[in-house]
Amino acid sequence: MRTQVGIIGAGPAGLLLAQMLHQRGIDSVVIEARSRAHVESRIRAGLLEQGSVRTMTEAGVADRLHREGLVHRGLELRFGGQGHRVDLADLTGGKVVTIYGQQEAVKDMIALRLAAGLPLHFEVADVAIHDMATARPRITWTQDGVAQSLDCEVIAGCDGFHGICRPAIPAADLRIFDRIYPFAWLGILAQSRPMSEELIYARHTHGFALATMRSTSISRLYLQCAPDEDLSLWSDDRIWSELRARLGGALEEGPILQKGVTAMRSFVAEPMRHGRLFLAGDAAHIVPPTGAKGMNLAIADVRVLVRALEHFFAGRGEALMDRYSATCLDRVWKVQRFSWWMTQLLHRYDDHDDFEERVRLAELDYLAGSTAALTTLAENYVGLPYAD
Ligand code: APR
Ligand code: PHB
Q1: pLDDT tens, residue by residue, 368-383
Q2: Which end of the chain is more exposed for a tag (fewer CB within 10 A), N or C?
């Protein structure tokens, strides 16, 4: 088998890349380790920057997103028992964010690709990359016990944080930046009306809490917890009472449909390219979810990669491919900074003394009262402008 771009991983990065390449007449084959049902049901974050919505619209994958996505013009910061509304649209000249579950976007992109009869293989095993330092890299895998081999011109490593692409790059050629936070998020999906029409980010002496949603009847709620939190110690009653304490206000309870613990990490691998292997999305970087940036950063990488590959396959040379990593990392580090800043501002650190506590409260108070500071938050939250 042969193709122009071999794409490893059918998450948001791999699927969007495949679709945007298809729009430009560039062939690709997507391979995915898990089953279709698994990737379509994996619950992840669900907040899209204005630019992500535009990118998905231009890619032709946003029909249902426009019908069902919830447009948010603001959010609420809650601390010291009081709420402070941040008018994102007013502060950014009209920009907004949209709530749409990541797995819904994944479902839409899978359906589109399969309906078009384009190659997308699920449940592949033993995936390996060969000859990535040459102009003819190759991917091998097995499917249903049968060995497969795909000759490519370029390989896109979109296989997430635990994939095989980043580890395939010689360690001496990669620089890793890693920070693990001393807490995690306990997240639930509940059949209950959201507390408010907008998201609530709360800082409380017990720890952080976030009230978000998936629809007008499904809430998504998170609580700061220990990194090794034992979910069996969290009865539904305990979860609701802790959410009520931290979020304040009237919280409608309902059946809990799903529960899980998400680790918190900041991670960057540099550079994001090795020969003809290009990393995109979680394969290259992880952000803590406080800024809601994971999927948005994956989409931003894909935009840059598509432009570079478009040039390359049009015979216009490798200049944009050579700049891929630097262009992406410029945004990645700004988004890392923002995600780290939101995280440290809103979470409880057991080792912080009273001085650090007071400084953070002062920072929040300053933020809530300063248009300059709120503008900084808002322009990062709705998404920094793209380089192109
Ligand atoms: N071979 C093929 N596929 C693989 C392999 C492999 N060896 N290893 C992992 N995968 C698949 C995973 O099963 C997953 O479906 O690669 C896909 C990677 O998808 P994501 O983890 O969703 O990563 P990405 O597409 O970069 O999207 C980033 O996803 O993790 C969230 O919060 C993150 O929102 C962000 C977004
Ligand atoms: C979500 O809707 O799951 C979500 C929203 C905002 C965040 C994190 C997660 O910061």
Answers
A1: 999 999 999 999 999 9
A2: C
